[in-house]
From TrEMBL:
This is Peptidase M14. Gene3D superfamilies: Zn peptidases. Its cofactor is Zn(2+). Pfam families: Peptidase_M14.
Amino acid sequence: MTRISRLRRLIVAGAAVLLGLTMPGSATAAVPSTTELAYYDVTSAATTTGGLAADLNRRGYDVLEGSMTNGVPILASASDAQRLRRGGLTVRYAGPLYQPVPASFVAAADTYYGGYHTAAGHETHNAAVVAAHPDLAVLRTIGSSWLKTQGSGGHSIQALCITKIASGDCALNTSGSKPKFTLMAQMHARELATGELAYKWIDYLVSNYGTTAAVTNLMNTTELWIIPIANPDGVDIVSSNSTSPVSQRKNAHTNGCSGTGKGVDLNRNSSYHWDVNQGTKCSETYPGAGAASEPETQGIQGFLSQIYRDTKPAADFSAATTATTGTFLTLHSYAELNIYPYGWTNTIAPNNTDLKTIATAMGKSNGYDVVHGDGGLNYFAPGATDDWIYGTLGVPGYTIEVGPSSSSCSGFFPKYTCMTSFWNLNLPAFMSLATAAARPYPTGS
C-alpha cells in the first residue's frame, strides 16, 4: 500500500468515526438484525489468510478485492456468517451493503439510488451526445446482451467513439491513422461507480474540446472509445430496486440458479486463459459453459479485435512490439488498485517495464496501489478482459478498482455524492492512459 493510500484511508476512517458512519472495516459496527447482505471479515486460526481466501472462493462465497489486514473480506448474509462460525471460523461484521437513501428520494427519469444512471439512461445519453456533437462523436452497436439474443428484451452493447472526426475515423477496422484508447465500465453490474465515471468521461471530453488544451490535443490525435455499460441486462437487475439495488454481478443468463446466482461472470469468460475451475454455476465467479460463451463477451472481443492491430506473438511470454499503439482500461470496484497484466499468474509479463510505468503514472494521480497477478485482489482472475487484450493483441490492458475499503464511499453501492471525489481522483489517470496510447512501449521491455 502506498503512503498516500494509507494516509487517505486513515483520514477517511477517522472522519467516519467522528460522523458516526457505519462502514466496512469498522470495528464498532453493529451486527445486522436482518438477513440482508452485508460485508464481513473472515479469519482462521488454522489457515493463512491467502489460503482461506482461496478456500472461501472455491466454496462459492463472494470473496472481495482489497486489503486482508482484518481478514478475508466477503459479502454475505447473516445466515452465511453463522454457517462459517459453526465451521470454526471467526467472522466479524464489517459494514452494511447499502448507504441510506432518504425516504423522500424520488428517482429522476433513468436514474436510481440517488443519481446513478440505468442502462436505458446511458443509452439515452449516448444518443444525445451524438446528436449534439456530430463532429465529435459516433455511436456503434458492437454486440447484444444475453436476453436480447433470446428474444426476451435485453439491449444492444453500445460503444461511443469520441474524437475530432476526420475521414476514416471511428471505423470498425484497424486502418485508421489515430491510436485508440478504450474505457469500459460496469462489466460487473453491481459496481455502480464505474458506469457513472464512464458517463462523466464522455461529458468531460465533448464539453472541453476547443477550450481545454490537453483535451483538444487528445481528441485531435486519438480515438477515445467508451463502452459505458458492458453488462446492460445485469444493470437492469441491479437498478430494479431504486433505493436498495440488487447485488447482481453477472449477466442475466438463465442457468437454473436463483437470485443473484443467475448468470455468468463476464470478467472470467474471455477466450484467454478461460478456467473451468473458477466457479460453479451459482457462484459469483462462474466462468460460463466455455470460453467466450456469452454474447456480451463475443461482442466486446470482436469489437476490440476490429479496432486494434495485433502486435504480439501468440505465446504468453512473447513481447508485443514497440510499434504497438493503443491502450485499454476496464473499470471495476472497489479496492483502490491500478492493475496491470498479467492477472492470471504472478509471472512477470514480457512488456513489464513499460506496462508498470504506465500503471505507476496512473497511481501518481489517483493514489491507488499498483499491482499485478493476485496482488491486492486475494485471487487470480483468469479469463479477464484486460489480460485478454494484452495476451491476444499486445495492447496494454489495465483495470482500475475504484473506491476505498471503508467509509460511506466504499463498497459496491457508495453514496452518489461520492462520485465527485472518485472523478477528481481518476480523471488524471484516464488522461494519462489515453495519452499513452500513441506509444505505450517506448523501451520494448
